[in-house]
Amino acid sequence: MKLYSYLTGPDDETFCKRVCAKLNDGWDLYGNPTLTFDGKNVIAGQAVVKVVEGKFHNEIDIKQM
């Protein structure tokens, strides 16, 4: 099955580390990053996907995958 997650947060080192952690845990980037401005900070977003064995069901904890 393919899992999907969308990471968001201020465009800073912490956000980059969150994306790096996902990549090093077997996730792949999906599409281009997005940026927006909330009037104070630049907010970044990045979609990631991961292929794992099994069938999808609603009880899956994506954050633990």
Give a short overview.
The chain has 1 helix and 3 strands, in the order E-H-E-E.
Unreliable stretches: none
Estimated structural class:
alpha+beta
Order of helices and strands: EHEE
Report on the biggest sheet. 3 strands, antiparallel
> What gyration radius follows from the Cα positions, in whole Å?
13 Å
Strand content: 35-45%
How are the strands of the largest sheet arranged?
Answer: 1-3-2
How many helix segments?
A: 1
Would you count the extended β strands for me? Answer: 3
Mean pLDDT: 94
What gap, in angstroms, lies between the N and C termini?
12 Å
> What fraction, in percent, of the residue positions are helical?
10-25%
In the residues, how many domains can be counted? Answer: 1
Blueprint of the fold:
Blueprint lengths: L1 E9 L2 H12 L3 E10 L4 E10 L14
Antiparallel strand pairs: 1-3, 2-3
Task: Describe what you observe in this structure.
The model has no long low-confidence stretch (mean pLDDT 94). It is built from 1 helix and 3 strands; from the N terminus they run E-H-E-E. It is elongated. The longest helix has 12 residues, at 13-24. Strand 2 (28-37) and strand 3 (42-51) form a beta hairpin. It is an alpha+beta fold. Strands 1-3-2 form a 3-stranded antiparallel β-sheet, with helices on one face. It has one domain (2-64). The chain has one helix spanning 13-24; strands at residues 2-10, 28-37, 42-51.
